[in-house]
Amino acid sequence: MSNSVILDVSNFSFAYGDVQAVKNVSFTVKRGEFFSFLGPNGAGKTTVINTLITLLPMQEGTVTVAGYDLRADRVKVRESIGIVFQQITLDKDMTVRETLDFHGDIYGMDRDNKLQRISELLALVELEEKADVLVNNLSGGMKRRLEIARGLMTRPQILFLDEPTIGLDPQTRQKTWEYLRMVNQEGTTIFMTTHYMDEADILSDSIALIDHGEIIKRGTPDELKSDLGKDIIYLETSDNNAASALIQEIPGISGIQPCDGKLLICSGNDGAQVLPVIIRAADEQGIMVRSVSLKKPTMDDVFMHYTGTEIRD
Question: Taking every annotated instance into account, which residue ranges of this chain make up the domain ABC transporter (predicted)?
């Protein structure tokens, strides 16, 4: 494994009985990268993540985490990673400081190193004034910040984040992004899942999309958006099947995907010029246009184009 690669997944497959959840998945994550792993519920991403963080046993394939083989060196892998779960897993009867102190004890940190790290992390997530407050008395945003601090307690090489801002208000989400950026800029590799496409777009260096147990697309946010074309058109008609067949013949159309009762149309040319052509062609064939919108590609459009569905909680 190259020194620049901190996570190497090769030909990984996983089955629950006769159900193949993950099919021959391969991807790498570079050291220091902010990587987002996206997919609909049931796509296989939870199985992949739970295997990477050692909650599930390895089945087929090979995985190397921070230079350690996931099958042979599970303890070393655990020592190299930090985890922030989707659900809050804090002890409500502990204080903020006790939470971090206890986590350090579990991992055998010596006292001086542990106390120094607690001080650093309380400052990082701005919980110094709440250090001796019970977890039960913290707001949801403060609890999430504490979980991030706990995940960083052992100075992990990779921090796994499962839906880190779910349920947070917009202001707290933005603040959480700031903490994650700082952590990443200090050299920690971040592996994140999220249902918020704007979050993946803003934070990620690289993104992988998984669906039906397979990696279906990989790239930077800008690459993924530009691959769709110059503009995106959403079109709802009286007969989407007939409209789709008709539109495919129009020059400049790079892709069409059904999406929640509409057609997601990728235009390689200026959408403002293509749109009147589409409407005129539909009208000539007696197809009624019920709604239409034109926009620049976003990560939401990328997700819907490649998976055929909107992201779901």
Answer: 7-237
Q: For residues 109 and 38, what is the distance between their CA atoms, to the nearest angstrom?
A: 34
Whether the Cβ atoms of residue 51 and residue 70 lie closer than 8 Å to each other: yes
Give pLDDT, residue 131: 96
Return the CATH number at 287. 3.30.70.100
**Domain interval for residue 243:** 230-296
Of 223, 242, 271, the residue that ends a domain is 223
Cα–Cα distance measured from residue 24 to residue 26, given in angstroms and rounded to the nearest whole number = 7
Structure-block tokens of residue 166:
């779910």
Residue type, 44: G
- State whether 80 and 176 are in the same domain: yes
Kind of pairing between the strands at 60-65 and 5-16? antiparallel
Pairing of strands 253-259, 231-237: unpaired
The backbone torsions φ and ψ at residue 206, rounded to the nearest 5 degrees and listed phi first, read -150, 150
Task: Let me know whether 76 and 44 are in one domain.
Answer: yes
Q: Are residues 218 and 120 in the same domain?
A: yes
Q: How far apart are CA 258 and CA 298, in angstroms?
A: 17
Torsional sign, CA 223, 224, 226, 229: positive
- Residue 309 tokens read as 């569905």
pLDDT digits over 270-292, tens only? 888 899 999 999 999 999 999 99
The total of other beta-carbon atoms located within 10 Å of residue 163's CB is 17
d(CA 238, CA 120): 60
- Beta bridge partner(s), residue 189: 158
